[in-house]
Amino acid sequence: MAAVGKSTLMDALNGSRRATGGQVLINGDNLYQNFDAYRADMGYVPQADILHTNIPVKRALRYTAMLRLPPDTSLADIEKNVNDALDKVKMKGKEDLPIYKLSGGQKKRVSIASELLSQPSLLFLDEPTSGLDPGLDKQMMDTLNSLADEGRTIVLTTHATNNILNTCHHVAFLA
């Protein structure tokens, strides 16, 4: 890898930018060699939000669901997945707002919700608390801890270490 940093490591771990040496193993399987088998079970929220900001939250999530879920998924099931994802990231009541009217933390929650639509068991988050005040940082970490308690593996990068001791099961420091 040319650059060495948190985002570069995150990209190597999730397969979006493959490392030039070493291996990334998932349950003993080489991720790079078996990427297609794992792709559908992984979600990735990059540091920069990639949402269409002029449309309401719920519409954006519906579009995402229609693109990511199997083509035979009913509209009722799409609506259920969208509502479940909004519940998990505590964004109920904001679904009719255009995304550009949301705070930074709310936008990050919608980005996470868009990944939750396909119900991945492995979720990569690059700086999910970036730009949040300490209270919102704790709230986000609590939300991520709840997602992990549902059986997901959450891998995240962060500069903010105040809330990792009470919410993270494993911590690695990159220097």
Could you name the key traits of this structure?
alpha/beta; two-stranded antiparallel sheet; 5 strands; 10% strand
Give a written overview of the molecule:
The chain is an alpha/beta fold and 175 residues long. Helices cover 39% and strands 10% of the residues. The chain is built from six helices and five strands, in the order αββαβαααβαβ. It has helices at residues 6-14, 35-39, 57-68, 75-88, 104-116, 134-149; strands spanning 25-26, 29-30, 42-45, 122-126, 153-157. A three-stranded parallel β-sheet has the order 3-4-5, with helices on both faces. It has a two-stranded antiparallel ribbon with strand order 1-2. α3 (57-68) packs across α4 (75-88) and α4 packs across α5. The protein is globular and about 45 Å long. The protein starts with 5 loop residues before the first helix and ends in an 18-residue tail after the last strand. The model has no long low-confidence stretch (mean pLDDT 88).
Describe the structure concisely.
This protein is an alpha/beta fold and 175 residues long.
